Amino acid sequence: MSLAEVIWRATSLVRDQVDRVAIPAGLIPSTPDFQPKSIREFRPGFEISRNFLSLQDEIGEDQATCWRNNLIRAADAISDNHLTFFSHVNLHVGDPPNWHYDFNLQRDSSTKAIQSINYRDVARNGDCKEVWEPNRHHQFVVLARAYSITGDKRYADKVAALMRSWIDNNAFATGMNWRSPLELGVRMINWVWALELIRGSGAVSDQLWDDIQLCMFRHCWDNQRKYSRGSSANNHLVGEAAGVYVAASYFQNFPRAAAWASEAKSILEREIIAQSYPDGCTREQALGYQFFVIQFYLACGLVGRLTAKPFSSEYWSRLSLMIEFPLQIGASGTLPLFGDQDDGYVLDFGDHPRDLGALATCASNIPELKIDCGDSGAECESSFWWTGNARPNADRQNKDKNSSQFRSVAFADAGYYLLRSNAFDSRTSILFDCAELGYGEIAAHGHADALSFSLSAFGHYLIVDTGTYDYFTDIRWRNYFRSTAAHNTVEIDGENQSHMSGPFMWSSRANSKCVKWIADGDQTEVQGQHDGYHRLTDPVSHERTISLMIDELKIDVVDKLTAAATHKVKIYFHLGPDCTVSDVNDNTVTVRFAESAEFQLRLDESLSFSCVSGDDSGLGWYSPGYHRKQAITTVVASREISGPVELRHEIILPHSVN
């Protein structure tokens, strides 16, 4: 930790102790005399309007009615206080909602002053993620969207009632919901969008309007003096600044609103470059968080346009690359996630936040991005709410037939390599990880996955990154899912490539590099190496080469290990959730992944192996989302080595799926 960060953290502790006394006493912040006193007279810094009739004209009455009915069903469930998030489906959260409750562990969180709340203390406060998620208020925007397209005032009334309930039950600077500036940032954006969509409904009384302004003012005031710095300045800083930028731009009547918005905009302009590689991948090495920050940057970029204070061309250019990166690696029809993922998103506009078709369509309708959505784009609801257009921009769809070619690609800046073949219409895709552990000093959201790979073909996940599952509830699961054993790579002596020193910290890290990349002719090949096991008493080097024979759909994996003494080696292959082992013969594992389709995993004949599913140690589990996991099959191959060795494996894919 740098000296500057130490000073910042010490200063923050002093500030917090002053806040503990000054805020309850009403000494800070001062309460402005908000004008105007009625939302009817309020003139926001920007306006958002969406016309359902124009949507019908664009996509046809049948499709528009389908989206309308789906939205009404979602809004009706929320009106009845049922929410779906993480592992919860149509969970009743109370009437009025219990804003301080972990419904997973069935535990209340503290409502004391935020300075006394340890949000990682699950025993006292529950899982902070479970408490925070419904307090991000995505549901407010769903209700506001329903009002916007139906004109049914009961949806707007529900938004107003929920805002009233939240304000009354969340005194400023107390409780878990004021504890994290990132949560304030997400909440501000959702309140602004919801308020704008119901502004003309008459649902917000003058008294509630005054309280809403005070609540949003306090959100802005608190966040702008607590921006994350140093090792904490990752996606949190982006979300904190985005919330202030959107709220201060909308509530232009706030004292210092212009200064707050200007500072937040400068942070966003800086961080979009600092926190991403020139090829578009996030430096956090966590694709789930890439989708999260893309939404922050999109919201702010659009607000900049609406307020006639546009973001720079550099900002839009980098955001374009950040969007193209997942579009490219997901072009196979599957999306190989890596690093931490906690299902975070900013605004609920109807489509899943990781829906690549929706992202492509939305991007094609934002001129500043200059993105050709190729074959990915399709009419979607979220693009309508983001941009006003539900269909892909015709000028940017398939304008260049070569732009959507399914090809191998090197993201050399970030350290990811795509090996691809479309032989037999298989859309075979291998993502090879030769990247850094994570961003900054602590690499908070990285996993010990050097030289791991994932594989998909024929629209199925065949070999997968196992996901994240949990942050705070059970440290064993947290440690397992980011361990080397949870990834498709080599483990030495039961040790992780990088050494964990906390749930979001690493005391040593493996350094990876690509030493060969060939993508031409009949074969694509990548070779990488890392030094994570050089820290052992007898250092071990690991070099992996993956070769894809384009026309044969055969994959060679060669692990070269260099050591002097004896070591225990384990190599993991985590099979996808659609996969079952149908046969084992010598060192060949036959895996069925569709009704009549199989692939073969041929292990080096010197290895012994076992197939593990749903083991208590963690092996044989896959997490498709936060607090969700399901049993899969993990092939664990092992042997002892003494001195240098090469281990050769083959994966042979079928030529059709019936």
Structure notes:
It is a single chain. β11 (499-502) and β12 form a beta hairpin. The protein folds into three domains: 49-203, no CATH class; 276-404, no CATH class; 406-652, Beta-galactosidase, Chain A, domain 5, CATH 2.70.98.70. 33% of the residues lie in helices and 22% in strands. It has 658 residues and is α+β, with helices and mostly antiparallel strands. The model is unreliable at 399-403 (pLDDT under 50). Strands 13-14-15-16-25-20-19-18 form an eight-stranded antiparallel β-sheet, with no helix packed on it. A five-stranded antiparallel β-sheet has the order 5-6-7-8-9, with no helix packed on it.
Descriptors:
658 residues, single chain, 8-stranded antiparallel sheet, alpha+beta, globular, Beta-galactosidase, Chain A, domain 5
